[in-house]
Design brief:
This protein has one domain. Helix content is 52%, strand content 10%. The chain is built from 19 helices and 8 strands. It has helices at residues 10-15, 20-37, 48-56, 61-71, 86-91, 107-110, 120-130, 135-138, 150-160, 176-197, 203-225, 236-246, 251-271, 296-303, 317-320, 331-343, 354-366, 381-396, 413-425; strands at residues 76-79, 95-98, 142-146, 165-168, 282-287, 307-312, 371-377, 401-406. A 4-stranded parallel sheet has the order 2-1-3-4, with helices on both faces. It has a 4-stranded parallel sheet with strand order 6-5-7-8, with helices on both faces. Helix 11 (203-225) packs parallel to helix 13 (251-271) and helix 14 (296-303) packs across helix 19. The longest helix is centred in the middle third of the chain and has 23 residues, at 203-225. Bound molecules: Double cubane cluster. Double cubane cluster (BJ8) binds next to helix 7, helix 9 and helix 18.
Length: 427
Amino acid sequence: MTETAAPDYHQMWAELGLDLPTHDMLLQAVGGMYGDAYLTQPNRPEGTGYLDFVLSEVHGLRIKELDDFRKQGGKVVGTFCLYVPEEIVRAAGAWCVGLCAGAEFAYDQVEQIMPRNTCALIKSFMGFKLAKVCPYIESSDLVIGETTCDGKKKAYELLGDIHNVYVMELPQTKDAKALAFWRERVAELMAKVEELTGNKVTADSLRTAIKEVNDKRRALQRIAATFKADPVPMSGKDRLLATQIAFYDDVPRFTQMMNTLADELEARVARGEGVAPKGAKRVLVTGTPMAIPNWKLHDIIEKAGAVVVGEEMCTGSRYYQDLVSEDATTLDEMIDDIAEKYLDINCACFTPNQGRIDDVVRMAKDLGADGVIDYTLNFCGLYAMEQHSVEDAVKAAGLPVLRIETDYSMEDVGQLSTRVEAFLEML
Ligand code: BJ8
């Protein structure tokens, strides 16, 4: 029997300008983390095979697809934040990808240009760029930033010295004036991507893009809804991975695969089949986003015997819970709807941000959570400031809260495990 050799992507990576030995080291480290966190799980649904495949090819086949697309004249746009409307990018014929920001890399180089006490997400994306190990940013014809937190908006100035960067100005309140202001920024973004691609956005192309992206979010909503069941049909870690992959993968293919996975999960729920015993402790996680390969907290919680039933975060419900209206008929109305939907995202950069607090309580109740873990990256002032309000609201709803501040290093895993286990004991 002949074995098919795994494709060798080194030439493609070299053409993208990656530092090959360092990149090889990164892939090996991520593969090891993945094996330990994911491949050790019992009774995973068959549909998670797709997640394994995508992850195993995340710097391979997907980058090859982007490469082929660009060689045919297509443009790729990289983003770091939920506020960048994927619909606009797709309607102009470009592809949108989330950029690597979930692992500690080249901090020694990063700390030469920004303070050591910067959040891990920002240091990570800068480290990936400086060390030349992120094929997504090297495949991005344009990176679209946003003025969310102070750290990010200043980091985009530094990134702008070494990459093509465009920054959307995001208001910090959600009143009518702010919406009108944001709507103008969305229209400006449209002009920018039209200039990049040479394609005009039309009512037809935007309608199609709105539908495609809504369909992706609907598939993720179906998966999320199955976690109301006890036992849960899949691990929270796998649900987190599905949401992380939503930022990278081909949109129609991903939607189809996630609907297939949702079919399987719904069938498991109907049969009462789960991945953890019925009655396992249920935890809702809220806070700052978890980019690939940041699976640390979920891994700790689920290895301690509990299940993560949901994420109120940008790599969770904030990504898929709201859709853009599909009722508009004109291009202008569609831009209005997009502006409205995106301004509705509950990031802590807004003041006030009561919508997030309400979402945490609502989700905890809907998903039957026994407790909430509020997760904040070190040096993220915005989410750290909101921890107090989250704790008050969740306690008022009768549930305990554990606050966690951490980063991407593995040094505190022992200490975090002890705290999580003690928290689970008291649920
Ligand atoms: S919409 S959460 S993806 S900004 S963790 S870099 S806030 S210091 S990531 Fe975010 Fe968009 Fe908001 Fe979501 Fe700054 Fe905090 Fe770091 Fe953060």
